[in-house]
Each structure stands twice: as structure tokens, then as C-alpha cells.
Amino acid sequence: MLRLKSVKTLVIASAVSLAAATGALAFPDKAIEYIIPFGPGGESDISARFQQPFFKDKFGQDLVVSYKPGGGGAVGWAQLNSMAGDGYTIMGINLPHIVIQPAQKDVGYTTEDINAFYMFHYTPDAIVVTADSPYQALEDLIADAKANPGALTMSGSGKATANHLAQIRFDKMAGIKTTYVPFKGTGASTTANLGKQVKAQWGYTTVGAAQGDAVRMLAVAMEERHPLFPDVPTFKELGFEMVGGAYRGMAVPKDTPADTVKALSDMFGEINADEAFRKQMLDGGFALLDVGADGMAEFMKARKDEYVEAATEAGLLN
Amino acid sequence: MDFEHLANALTLTNLALALFGVVAGTVIGSIPGLSATMAVAVLVPITFAMTPASALILLGAIYTGAIYGGAYSAILLNTPGTPSAIGTTFDGYPMAKRGDGDLAVAIACYASVFGGMIGALALLLLAPPLSSVALAFGPVEYLWLSIFGLSLIASLSTGNVLKGLAGGAFGLLLSCVGVAEISADIRLTFGSPTMIGGIEVVGALIGLYCIPVLIDLVATPERHLKVDKGGRAVRFREGAIIAWRSRFNLLRSSIIGTLIGILPGAGGSVAGLVAYSEAKRTARPDQKFGEGEPDGIMATEAANNATVGGGFIPTLVLGIPGTPPDAVILGALLVQGVRTGPTLFEGGGSIVYTFIFGLFIATILMLPTGLLIGRYAYKTIVTIPKTILVPSVGFMTIIGTFAIRNSISDVIIMIVLGTVGWVLSRFGFAASPIVLGLILGPIAEQGFVQAWIIGEATGNLAGMFFGRPISLAIIAFTILSLLYPVIQGRRARKLLDMQAGSNAKTDD
After folding, report:
1. Where is the signal peptide (chain A) (predicted)?
2. pLDDT of residue B494
3. What residues contact residue B175 under an 8 Å CB cut-off, 6+ apart?
4. What is the rounded CA–CA span in Å between residue B162 and residue B153?
5. Which partner from A28, B5, B80, B350 sits 20 to 30 angstroms from A290, CA to CA?
6. pLDDT band at A89 (very low <50, low <70, confident <90, very high)
7. Do A40 and B138 touch (CB under 8 A)?
């Protein structure tokens, strides 16, 4: 059944904000295309869908999500700078992808080509085991890995990805050797874990949110515990300096005027500040991040150094 | 689960949404390039303003309709509208060629409705236990399942196995282009950034199947499809009789479709091919698969529509999407604030059951709408002059290929592959083995690499590949389907000898 009332308020609200927008500042006066360089249904798509209604509500224009999948995102990012730099085309970006891909080989773009204007969330790395796994805590997993070097298999999404880099970094910190098994996407990696094809999974907090009681997270890579999982310790609490995951944000073509970039950054900052939006994201297991256009250079550099170091040590960048 | 949920599903809004969804889905699915995934993704924003149950019903109806719609272009244009309908071309197009296109469309509709009902029934009654199938399938099982699918090449190319195998190998090679799915290596791009995205399966389907048909249409003076003069009665009844006679085939194919739909790593295309392969293996000697055998259409269409209900089983029970459209629906549900997983069935059951009944309603609605749209589609394709048919289909192939991922290079790849496919077909190489290689190659490769890594880590490589019961069963079926043509041939020869001895009648 249609919620007629909410539709009506939405229409009125958008009409009002449309009038306000055209009066004060002309941007945006038409729909903005939001290109996701992946197929529909993944974390990038879902978090963009979360933003969609808030954008329409606040700024009166549609945020139209479209897809340009291929090459793990590379096809879209390689074309970003050939698109119109008028602020009406934005593209989803992901870390570590945009650092690792061009560092590994020629994929048609460089990290510096990507003009990021806002990073709005990340999915923190987490070690996930099934509810009936013998690993009750992180120390159980470490003990097993120490006793049987290389025999502990862990599923994850893709190679040279956030999951894979997390495995490399954690193995080094804990002084253990585990075997990473790459799967096609988080869904397949979770299936392998639930089906006991592997002993544990390098996943994200979103996996814990989606799977509920079927799984147990041993630790999450956050500064503080995730509000959805007050009982799951952080790696930091357990003595490992691991904070991070897969970061997501938006970028515009390089020739977009600076004030338009600033306007976009402010707009998405406003969505990120909305309590209802924050709650939706947290309930889905995401962790919020507020890096606008101003702090982007510094943020990117820190991430890049971290990723390149881990990837180089693991021999992924030859 | 009680009648309250059925009543909820039967509200006027939900019925209207189901009807709209089925019609829209059927039309979108019939256009090559516009897949079920895209149909669902495009309509997601509309569902934000609806209640979760209504949103699910609309999306489920579109999905079901799109999977069926793929049969039209498969039958009438030899071009699968969605990858799920690949197997439908094998017998559908030959039927249409000889003037039985209307019958083929009707049969496809009955089979789709039947398959859809079985899938939905499994979802309603057996979802939690059946979801364990998704978990029992590990990397090795996917490897052997795709090998089983590839074994269909042998039986598809009777009399010309070498050319079939060459085509399959070419398809496997094409599937390697671009960024490898799990190892992230960049392969066979020859330094061109446009090739990084690889060969899009749907684009390749359109090129390999549709372009040769278009070229032949232009190159020959004959009509596209043979039509009987003198206005024949609608062949709904004839189709129903054929479908009833093949009820065991329908049931078997629907069960195969449901089970394969549950597997997150294999979708409607694999389900249709496996069901086709099984139908062919168990066929009566007088059935000529690949030359317009109704059972071939029924196997594929029943199986691919059964994947809809089957795919929702892991989606709703485990929170793991069974098929790509399910992933989109799962995302839409998350935005609505509905959390899938075991608790959804137990706690918030009302949404689930309202949705399942909605899926039943959509599937039932597919019978009248599908037959009607199918009849219209058939009439249009048959009566339209070639001078209009060729340009409009050509235009659709370009738009459809572009729409998959807004990429002009996909269009170029499609046209190049189409031309290559046409040239190859002149030399007796069929398109289907190439497509099988292209679709099944990545599944086999992933399964192999993962199984190898796990097997090596646990020090049990042989046990990994040959020591798991489900794998062994699939291997047995593969060997059976490979050897069956040989056994059948020998038996037929023996029969022939006996008949010759007793001076029996010639075959019909």
C-alpha cells in the first residue's frame, strides 16, 4: 500500500526546497547522476540508496543512481575525468581500490586522477566466525593459527582488497600465518564461511549486522566499539593497532569548479549529519565518516601510505 | 502462515502492483539487454514510498515476468532476452522457423507458470531446510557443476563434437578477458583500458545470437518465420495438451531450477542449461532435441522460472542473495529497514508470507498476461515487414547492449562478436558452445582456484576435489551425460539391426 501521506509531504517539501534553492543558489537545479562503478546490490549500491531519499528531501532534486560495473570499479574510474565537470555527475569511489588498482598495473587512471570530495562511511574490518565455531575469542583463533601455520583458511572478498590487506596486516601483527581464500564479493565469502568451507572470514561489521545470531565477530577494526555490537571488542582493545576497512565516498571530474565541489561536499555533509540517516547506516552495520573536500588530501595520503606498505610487504605490487 | 497473510497479499493495491509488475517485467525481459536485474534496479526508488510487503510484491512480480519475457526473443529472434533463456533458443527458434512460433510461446508460458509455482511452493513450505543447500555447495561443487554444464557442449553438437569443443574453448578464452574475478590479474586486454571490463555476457549473447539472424534476414529473400496461410486458431489448447503430456519433465526441471536457484553462485542460466541437459538425456528416442522439440523449451523455461522462488530462499532465510536480482531486492529491503535472515521468518513473518503469496499471485497472473502478450509479440514479429523488423531489432540490440553498463565499448564488442559468430556459423561452429564457455568459465575457474587454495592449506588436495559426496554425485551425472549419447547410439543401432532382421517399418 502506498503511504500517500508521506508521498504528499515529500512532494510539498521538495516543492518548498526547490523554490528556496532556485532563489538562493542555483545549484542543483536538476537531477544529479550518481554513478556506482559496480553492479547493483553491493555495499556501494546500498549505501548510495540510503543517501538517495535524504538528498531528494533536503535539496529537492533527484539523486539518480546508475551503474557502470567492470574491472572491479576500474572501468568507471578510468572514465570519470572524461565526463562533464558541472557537478551534475558524481561517482562513487572506494578505498583501498583506487589506491591499489593503479599501483598494481595500468588501469587507465591514477589515484591522483580521482577528485574525491566526500568520504561518508566505511565498513570496518572484522573477523567473523559461525555461531558454533570453536573460536570463542580472538586468542583462540591466534592460538590455532600458531599451532597449525597456514592451515587456518579465511574467506574474504577478492584479492588485494580491504579484506585481503586486513588479513596481511593482522597476520604480521599477530605473528601468525593464515591462508586467505578470495571469493567473488562479500556475499560469496559469507556463504563460504556459513557453509564451513573455511574456518573464519575476513568480513565487515555489515556481515555481523546482516547475519545476526548465525555468526560471531571476534574483533572489529574501529577506534571504539560499534554501537550495534557493544559486546564485540575492537582490535585496539586486544592490543592490535588495526583501525580501518573499506571506505566509500564520492568524486567528481577534475575540471569541476571549486565552488561546485565545495557545494557538493557541504550537501553530502548535511546528509551525513542527519540523525535519521546516521541511525539507518549504523543499524546496517556501517560506520560513519565525515571527510569533506577540505580534509580530503590529508585523509587520502594517510590511507595511501598504509595500503601501499601492506601491499608491498605482501608482494602484491610487483 | 495462515490465511491472514493471503488476505494481506490480496489487497487491491497489491494485486494491481503484481499485475503491473508482471506486465512490465515481461516486456522488459523480452528486450535483449534489459535483464531482470536492471528491471528490478530501475524500479527500486519507486518502492521507497511503499510498505515493505508491497515493495517486495512489485519487485518479485517484475523479476518473475522478466525471466519469462526472455523466452519471446529467444523463440522468435533466436536471441535470449535474458541469459536464463539461452536453452530456450535451442528448440524455440527451430519451432518458430517451421511455423510453430505461437505454439512455442504458449508452451513457454505454461512451463514458466508451472516452474514459478513449484519454486514459490518450495519457498513457502521448505525455505529454512532448503537453505542449507546453499551452504553445502562449496568451491569444488561449483567447479563440478560448471563442468557438468560444459558437458552439454558434447550433446549439443552431435555429429560435430570437435567444432563444439573448439567453440567452447573459444568461449572460455573470451571469459578470461579483463580483470580476473578473484585473483585480480588483468588478462588478455592487450594494453587497452576499454578491455579491462571484460566481455559482458549479455552483450556477447546479443552479438552471437542476434547479429547472425539479422545478417541472414538481410541476405535471404525469404520471410523471417514460416507462417501458415488461412488464419489458424490460437494454439493455447494444443500447447496445454503438450505441456500436460510432459508433466514429469516439467516437474523434474522445476525441481532442478529450484535447487540451482538456491545456489548463490549459479543463476537462471545454469539452471536452464542443466534442466535442458537432463531432459535431453532422458528423452524418448523419437525426440529430436535441438530441432524444435517442445520438451527442450519446457525444461529451460520451467527451470528458469523456478529459480525465482528458489533464489529467494537463501535471500530471505540467510540474507545471502541467491541470484543477482535478489541482491538488488535485498538492498531495497535494507533501505526499508527490513532485516532478512532467520529472524525474518520467525519474528517478522507477516511480511515474508504476504510476499510469498504475492509471488504466487504474480505467477498465476503470468498465465493470462503471458499468453496475451506472447500472442501479440508473435503476431507482430511474423507480420511485420522485414524492412521494419531488421532496423528495429538492430536498434534494440544496440540500445540493449549499451544499457547494460552504459558503455559504448560493449556495443562495439557486441557487433564484432556478432560478425565473428556469423562467419563461424558459416563454417559450422554454433554460438551456444561459445556462450556456455563464456558463462561457465568464470564459475569453474573460481571454484578451481578456491578449492586448490583450501585443499593445499589443509593438506588434502585429492580429498578436496574427489572426496566430497555432492561432488561425486555431480561427477557421476557428468560422466553419465557424456556417455549417454554413445550408449543411446549403440542401442539404436542394435534396434535397427533387429528391425532390419525382422523387416520392420522405417522410422517416422
Report:
1. 1-26
2. 79
3. B198, B199, B437, B438, B439, B441, B442, B445
4. 10
5. A28
6. very high
7. no
The predicted pLDDT at position B220 comes to 86
**pLDDT of B299 over the 60 cut:** yes
Q: Which CATH architecture has domain A10-17+26-118+245-312?
A: 3-Layer(aba) Sandwich (3.40)
Question: Could you count the other beta carbons within 10 Å of the beta carbon of residue B395?
Answer: 10
> Are A67 and B406 in contact (CB < 8 Å)?
yes
Question: A5 in the Ramachandran plot: left (φ > 0), alpha (ψ -120 to 50) or beta?
Answer: alpha
Displacement of CA A312 from its chain's centroid (Å): 22
Domain span(s) for CATH 3.40.190.150 in chain A: 10-17+26-118+245-312
DSSP readout, B20-88? Answer: HHHHHHHHHHHSTT--HHHHHHHHHHHHTTB-HHHHHHHHHHHHHHHHHHHHHHHHHHS--SSGGGHHH
The CA distance from A67 to B320, in Å, is: 21
The answer to which of A8-17, A183-192, A307-316 has the lowest mean pLDDT is A8-17
How far is B338 from B329, CA to CA, in rounded Å?
11
Task: Tell me yes or no: is domain A123-220 CATH 3.40.630.10.
Answer: no
Which of B374, B365, B405 is closest to B35 using CA atoms? Answer: B405
User: Of B319, B337, B454, which has the smallest distance from its Cβ to A211's Cβ?
Assistant: B319
Phi, psi of B486 (to 5 degrees): -65, -50
Distance from C-alpha of A288 to C-alpha of A248, rounded to nearest angstrom: 10
pLDDT higher than 60, residue B484: yes
To the nearest whole Å, the CA of A259 is away from the closest chain B CA by 29
The mean per-residue pLDDT over the stretch B116-139 comes to 93
Helix pair angle (B52-77, B36-47), 10° resolution:
150
Strand partners, B435: none
SS3 B240: helix
ipTM value for the complex? 0.88
Mutate to test the interface with B, among A113, A194, A215 (most CBs of B within 10 A): A194
CATH 3.40.190.10 in chain A, residue ranges: 123-220
What is the model's pTM? Answer: 0.89
